[in-house]
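2024-03-11 09:14:02 INFO queue: dequeued item glutamate formimidoyltransferase, len=318
2024-03-11 09:14:02 INFO validating residues
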Amino acid sequence: MDFNSNYSNDKKKTTKQSMLLCCKVYISESRNKEALDSIERAAWHEPETVIVNKFMDHYYNRVGYTLVSYVAHDSTGCPIYTPLQQSVVAMARVAYEAINLESHCGAHPRLGVIDDIVCHPLGRASLDEAAWLAKTIASDVGNRFQVPVYLYAAAHPTGKALETIRRELGYYRPNYMGNRWAGWGQPEILPEKPNEGPEAVSRTRGVVMIGARPWIATYNVPILSTDVSAAKRIALMVSSRGGGLPTVQTLGLVHGEDTTEIACMLLEPNQIGADRVQKQVEMLAAQEGLDVEKGYFTDLSPEMIVERYMKLISADSS
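2024-03-11 09:14:37 INFO prediction written
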């Protein structure tokens, strides 16, 4: 019996179970199946990365992928490698080849083919490790693909908030039909200097936000009305910015032919969760004379994500 070999394998297995990082990659496309299939194949080239969730929205013309893998360290405990880096950069390469932002239109704001990449620690991994991954991916994306990259939260030198950067760049201003986003609708010379990549924008690729933060939840509440002005009023009153629920960010958006939607980011879901948001939306909608459906999460919980990762990794190695 080779004790050293078994010990090494056990240690590696423990690392893969407990030192995990998660990347959520939001891409401005949901209608082109061929493009999405190519992007997913690129991620699968790295067998130790697992796509644990995929959420597509036809009306927003947007897809979110949740990827998980382990992080390895050097002898001093500094992170030096995770399969996620290669997987996310490979997905970016294919996305920029397959998708043209100038041809894109949807009911959700975005500023790039890849709109956002956010890294979260899972298990015993730390936020510093997630920030390291975000900055590594940002350098690769900015330099390889010549796309301006804005770092945010723990990946930014001063912790600048994603919402602040988006407002500076005009993210929330629709440029088509009053409540939709089409093509590249901003100046080609950016008002704020990016952290990586060029200062001029390719209209076909746009820009990308890349950050690291503790876990957030995304929760959307449908409103049975086409009145987007009412949805925006409700969204503002629910949000911390509008004096509503602390640590909740919201958007009021068109969602289909006969509904609107309150799209929510819960920055501290263990403090203020979906139940509080649902009740607040229902109360405010009732004041507008509007009916509300039960909301839904667009991703799994961290516990479910780790569980699914372990099952898929075990199945691949058996």
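2024-03-11 09:14:37 INFO annotate: The CA atoms of residues 121 and 127 lie 6 Å apart.
2024-03-11 09:14:38 INFO item closed
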